[in-house]
Amino acid sequence: MDPQMRFGLIIGGVVGAALAAFFFMHNHFIWDVLLIPFGALMGAAPWMLKPKNE
User: Residue 1: helix, strand or coil by DSSP?
Assistant: First the structure.
């Protein structure tokens, strides 16, 4: 795993956790926890989609 991808996963997870906490406090849906892995995947997506030969 590239260091940039790991950094994107960490930052995306932190942002997803913050969004999940914010939305959970407003509407009290437990489904807001799904924002954590979605945020982490979106943070790592640029390096997952990069061609392997670079």
Answer: coil
